[in-house]
């Protein structure tokens, strides 16, 4: 069965991960976001209980 022979496919997988890790990943991580998050003070929400009509 050719699926069980890892000889060509293992090398292809290793080379593709090395290419991704060393070349493509640093290029994609170097991009800066167009909308950086703004530091905002968290708003406190006021929780009011619901008055049920059948009480």
Automatic annotation (TrEMBL):
Keyword DNA repair attributed: no
Name the GO terms of the biological process aspect: proton motive force-driven ATP synthesis
What's its membrane topology? Single-pass membrane protein
Does the UniProt entry include the keyword Mitochondrion? yes
Which gene is transcribed and translated to give this protein?
ATP8
* Molecular-function GO term, any one: proton transmembrane transporter activity
Species name: Forpus passerinus (Green-rumped parrotlet)
Q: List GO terms (cellular component aspect).
A: mitochondrial membrane; proton-transporting ATP synthase complex
UniProt protein name: ATP synthase complex subunit 8
The entry assigns this protein to a family as follows: Belongs to the ATPase protein 8 family.
Q: Which UniProt keywords apply?
A: ATP synthesis, CF(0), Hydrogen ion transport, Ion transport, Membrane, Mitochondrion, Transmembrane, Transmembrane helix, Transport
